């Protein structure tokens, strides 16, 4: 399931669950493409939480998480970042990271 | 709103040259030209406007001599004698531009025929000689060949600075004469930004391409001919996230990759970074040399400020020549050299190019000196910096290094090139130092690489300076407009076959271009994209190049579709900034102009090319044929 969240909402989500957090920008072609990739993944794994965050509107959070550009995908498990992917990636690369934490 | 898509399908230059050759051979057969009235073909292979071919038959075998007469006096004549034959196809090289050249064909019995060959003006983008200091005696019949670093053209200058050789194809990077007398340089066919072309081309100085060696990872920067004729070539694997970190050995006859070396196997990627390093282009391999004495390959890595030696057979790391700051201590202890000798004048090299192994094992290179430090706080500004040729003596037993020669430091920013360039070793004390990447803004060394500077901007000057010194005396200095990647001094003619007839060969293969497995939701419309997008598709025998203009942040995808298949290629419209731009040949003035290459390898059939721009899928009306 894909959910768009803000910094405040990010602080309230369950950080112990395995999850994918993606930072995107509305001005970024690769981010637009990635949204379709994530939609496809979500269709196949509807229970896996995917949170998307607007890079430009949540600057404090992106600095807190050390996100330097967009799109950036962070993979969390048990409250800790396990891995990250920077730039547009195809489904197999993202699914591999999801399977490593799910 | 107007809509438009441009399309061109052009044969490969090898095929066009073969067709031209067939045509002039037919004329030779039909017209039966004689020694007294020979057939003259100007620019017979279509890409060198400063050459011609003189054809005739004689009843008995004779050995003719061609002389291109100098503009001023006979000391400037360029002559070459050809083997005895009855059918003569004589390359005429080194014609003056926009001039009626006097060319004399003479026979051993004293007979001669004089013909006039008129050439036209050269293209506007040709870079002119601004200053030259040398003598006819020193340069002789040699020409200084310069290879472009931008949209300029490969050009050869004589001792007066007159252009005597030019290719109208933007071939790139290194240029070397190989054992059979041909030259090998980079092809001009675009594949991947920023400057990756399909591979290498082997050609004669008429411009006839005998072979194109295609590489799946393309060719960049440099190559080296082995004793058996096979080629070391610098390349990469586009399926991974780093570039310019592989070398391959190519079979000269088939183009097959026989062996490869991956520097990621022996070097850490995140240490010792130069000022231009990023994670993607972590090593930036810009030169290769094979050293037979030690059976090793010596490689220059601009983005680690290092020249490395690896074992030819095993690929194991032998040593690293460079400033050890920032490297793990265990690697410093094992692989780095300690300076000895005149330490007051010793400098490490930074962001260097063109490593050369001298006959005695010394290492020469062009030390660009960009940043001239490892630590950001110590970076030197370009206007306070220098570039130089440098020769180091290394003792691989004691792991000591001594600087024994340098040229250029004393010239400061006037000789400073933050990128490209090379050195040549001719003999002890006799060297060439080519500083081809000089760029000034308002009189000072620019902070930008030349490839990013526009010569038409007021205050911007791009220069290339090539120097030769012998025993400390400068005997040659050429200053031209523009930036040139490398310089190579060669005579126009050689003792082997200066022309061989027959069709050229396209060897090796391109990559299977990576497809995108997800298609964005887009409404298909039966319209062409707006003219503003400037869509242009160039189809070739083995690939096509898609050009288009898109606003930053647009979602763009190229689709190839037929009834049974769909292939998708994502087009990145995000701004991409390169910290290295050794050739700006493929750069566009408007950074919204984007091009991608799609190899036909792995595709079979006829496909309709369609274009997704944001939420609409447009038609292009173009069919791509993949056999």
From TrEMBL, chain A:
This is Thioredoxin. Disulfide bonds join 28-31. Gene3D superfamilies: Glutaredoxin. It comes from Desulfofustis glycolicus DSM 9705. The keyword Repeat does not apply. InterPro entries: Thioredoxin, Thioredoxin-like_sf, Thioredoxin_CS, Thioredoxin_domain. Coiled coil: none annotated. GO terms for molecular function: protein-disulfide reductase activity. One of its GO terms (cellular component) is cytoplasm.
Automatic annotation (TrEMBL), chain B:
Gene3D superfamilies: Arylsulphate sulphotransferase monomer, N-terminal domain (2.60.40.3100). Residues 40-118 form the Arylsulfotransferase N-terminal domain. InterPro entries: Arylsulfate_ST, Arylsulfotran_N, Arylsulfotransferase_bact, ASST_N_sf. Keywords: Transferase. The keyword Transferase applies. GO terms for molecular function: aryl sulfotransferase activity. It comes from the Bacteria. This is Arylsulfate sulfotransferase.
């Amino acid at each position: 399931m894909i959910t768009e969240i803000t910094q405040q909402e990010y602080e309230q989500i369950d950080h112990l669950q395995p999850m994918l957090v993606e930072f995107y920008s509305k001005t970024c072609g690769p981010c637009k493409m990635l949204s379709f990739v994530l939609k496809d993944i979500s269709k196949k794994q509807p229970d896996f939480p995917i949170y998307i965050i607007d890079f430009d509107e949540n600057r404090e959070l992106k600095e807190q998480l050390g996100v330097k550009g967009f799109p950036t995908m962070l993979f969390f498990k048990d409250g800790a970042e396990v891995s990250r992917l920077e730039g547009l990636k195809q489904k197999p690369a993202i699914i591999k990271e999801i399977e490593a934490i799910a | 709103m107007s809509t438009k898509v441009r399309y061109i399908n052009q044969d490969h230059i090898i095929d066009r040259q073969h067709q031209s050759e067939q045509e002039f051979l037919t004329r030779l057969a039909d017209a039966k030209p004689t020694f007294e009235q020979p057939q003259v073909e100007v620019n017979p292979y279509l890409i060198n406007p400063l050459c011609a071919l003189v054809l005739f038959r004689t009843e008995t075998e004779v050995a003719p001599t061609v002389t291109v007469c100098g503009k001023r006096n006979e000391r400037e004549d360029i002559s070459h004698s050809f083997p005895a034959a009855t059918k003569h196809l004589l390359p005429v090289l080194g014609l003056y531009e926009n001039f009626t050249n006097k060319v004399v064909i003479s026979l051993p019995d004293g007979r001669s025929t004089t013909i006039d060959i008129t050439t036209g003006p050269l293209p506007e983008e040709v870079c002119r000689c601004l200053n030259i200091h040398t003598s006819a005696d020193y340069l002789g019949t040699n020409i200084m060949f310069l290879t472009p670093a931008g949209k300029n053209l490969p050009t050869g200058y004589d001792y007066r600075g007159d252009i005597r050789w030019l290719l109208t194809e933007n071939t790139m990077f290194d240029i070397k004469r190989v054992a059979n007398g041909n030259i090998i340089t980079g092809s001009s066919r675009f594949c991947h930004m920023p400057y990756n072309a399909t591979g290498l081309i082997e050609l004669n100085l008429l411009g006839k391409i005998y072979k194109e060696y295609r590489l799946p990872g393309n060719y960049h920067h440099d190559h080296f001919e082995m004793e058996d004729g096979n080629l070391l070539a610098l390349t990469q694997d586009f399926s991974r996230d780093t570039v310019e970190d592989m070398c391959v050995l190519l079979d000269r006859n088939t183009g097959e990759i026989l062996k490869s070396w991956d520097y990621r196997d022996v070097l850490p990627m995140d240490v010792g970074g130069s000022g231009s390093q990023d994670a993607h282009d972590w090593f930036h391999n810009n030169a290769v040399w094979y050293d037979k004495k030690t059976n090793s390959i010596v490689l220059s890595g601009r983005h680690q400020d290092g020249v490395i030696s690896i074992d030819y057979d095993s690929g194991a790391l032998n040593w690293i020549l460079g400033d050890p700051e920032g490297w793990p201590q265990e690697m410093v202890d094992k692989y780095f050299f300690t300076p000895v000798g005149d330490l007051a004048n010793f400098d490490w090299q930074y962001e260097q190019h063109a490593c050369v192994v001298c006959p005695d094992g010394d290492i020469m290179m062009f030390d660009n000196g960009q940043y001239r430090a490892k630590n950001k706080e110590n970076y030197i500004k370009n206007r306070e910096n220098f570039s130089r040729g440098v020769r180091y003596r290394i003792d691989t037993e004691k792991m000591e290094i001594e600087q024994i020669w340098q040229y250029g430091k004393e010239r400061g920013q006037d000789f400073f090139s933050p990128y490209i360039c090379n050195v040549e070793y001719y003999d002890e004390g006799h060297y060439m130092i080519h500083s081809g990447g000089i760029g000034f803004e308002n009189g000072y060394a620019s902070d930008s690489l030349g490839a990013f500077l526009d010569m038409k901007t007021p205050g911007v000057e791009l220069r290339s300076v090539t120097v030769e010194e012998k025993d400390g005396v400068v005997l040659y200095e050429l200053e031209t407009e523009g930036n040139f990647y490398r310089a190579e001094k060669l005579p126009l003619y050689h003792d082997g076959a200066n022309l061989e007839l027959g069709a050229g060969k396209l060897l090796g293969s391109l990559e299977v271009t990576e497809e995108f497995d997800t298609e964005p939701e887009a409404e298909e419309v039966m319209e062409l994209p707006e003219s503003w997008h400037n869509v242009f598709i160039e189809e070739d025998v083995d690939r096509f190049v898609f050009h288009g203009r898109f606003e930053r942040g647009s979602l763009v995808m190229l689709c190839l579709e037929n009834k049974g298949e769909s292939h998708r290629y994502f087009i990145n419209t995000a701004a991409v900034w390169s910290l290295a731009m050794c050739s700006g040949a493929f750069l566009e003035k408007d950074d919204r102009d984007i091009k991608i290459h799609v190899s036909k390898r792995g595709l079979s059939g006829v496909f309709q090319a369609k274009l997704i721009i944001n939420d609409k899928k447009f038609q292009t009306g173009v069919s791509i044929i993949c056999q």
